[in-house]
Amino acid sequence: MSGTNLAQILEARARDRGRTVGLHGEDGRSWTFEQIDLIAGGVAKALEAEGVGAGDRVAFYLTNGPEIVFFLFGAWKLGAVPVTISSLYNVSELAESVAKTDPKLLLVDARGTDALGDVDGTKVTIRSVGPPTAPGASTDGVRPLQWGEEARVDAVEVPADGESCILFTGGTTGRPKAVSVTHGGTLDSLRRLARVSTGSKEQGTATPTAKPNLIALPLFHSGGQHSLLFAYFVGRGAVVWERFGVDRLADLTDRFAFDNLFLLPTMVYDIVHAKRDLPFTGVKHILVAGQAISWTVRRAFELRYGIPILVNYGSTESGHIAGWNSKDMKAGLWKPGSAGRIYPGVELEIRDEDGNTLPPGSEGEIVVRSELTKGYVDDAEASSALVRDGWVHTGDIGRVDEDGVLWLSGRKRDMIKCGGFQVWPEEIEDVLREHELVRDIRVFGGPDDRLGEIPVALVVRADGPVSDDELADALVAFARERLAHFKAPRRVEFVPELERSATGKVSRASVPDREGGSHT
């Protein structure tokens, strides 16, 4: 493939395997790569008729499904920039996202029209994208986009640093930020992952008979988009569903016989706690990313199914940085508890608070040279802190050992300062998850007059013979047996469930203000 436009990935597949099915819906519909390219061309024509051109932003507020694939590639063919807004956002979050990113056009489906009253004040042009309708028809007062025609449209050339998409961060540590990513940076990230996964950075290496990949994460999420692009980059088809569910996953695995899966830790958690066994006979490995997976959940899954879980470390802003693959496992290189080997081609440094590069084994902020992101479109101050001289400051704390393996300690902003000591919530969470009565947990720093902050544990407990007060004391003792005294939680509170972001991550954005709980 020549050029850097992401739409050229699809166009390459339409040329080399046009009759191969490249997209499946969970409802039984399917499209070949050639059909996808032609429908995307029709979308490009429809967007062009609305005045959209290269560099213009087009916001999507759409229920996850295969149609979004057509809209993504249709926009990219024009050099336009999709702004993928979570379909889980409420009306105020939609209005805020539109105001932040200033799109020329907003595409909604039937469920999205309910939110339009709050968006009208932004003066953005709105079009509905339900099933193609007759010209001039309207849905709930919103004129439809006439996207049903097929057309052969070649992708325009775009610069490597041209804006390809605006994605919203998961918002686990604050309000979601609008991240601008580039065509060239995304392609570099895909090549890097392909080289690690398949041994080649060239496109179309999978055989036309290869099993399709399940796009388990929504397409408004960076993980979902990268999964889709990666499948097409290596030459596999894609299965797109509305949302994750254990029964849905079982049905689709029965139908398509997936040989690998890319899941969030919360999905693995639900699979582990499901009463039914899923038909994973042909699955060779599970790739997990998005946040750390607990040892308890990982061990339970691997013992139940005999399938290894591989990890991938990266972010919307930095791309793929480190991980383990099946070749590493077979070669005996895997180091339990690590984030993985730093991928070939990744320039990574560990730096102290003054920006000095630290030697192997020293702990500091993980900084990566990357052309993936142009920064945050809605926060100039955060952008300048994120990208400095071409280096992305991840905000993650970790170290690199002598073998080039990356180890994570936690998020810089999540660190708890207890009596002058640094405490990482993830370390406490990993320990307490090993207790048989802990179903889920989140640790945060609570204010303390003497120590500044103390670790506080929010626990979703399992049923058991002990009271909450007895279990709180037992959990503190359990932690003190396994951790330094200052790291153990000083307060334990029980909740029915933990707040999660739209992508399923445990939210660290808000600090509960509670008077209750057990103190020690």
UniProtKB/TrEMBL annotation:
Listed Pfam families: AMP-binding, AMP-binding_C
Stretches assigned to the AMP-dependent synthetase/ligase domain: 11-376
InterPro entries: AMP-bd_C, AMP-bd_C_sf, AMP-binding_CS, AMP-dep_synth/lig_dom, ANL_N_sf
Residues covered by the AMP-binding enzyme C-terminal domain: 427-505
GO molecular function: CoA-ligase activity
Name of this chain's protein: Long-chain acyl-CoA synthetase
Originating organism: Thermomonospora echinospora
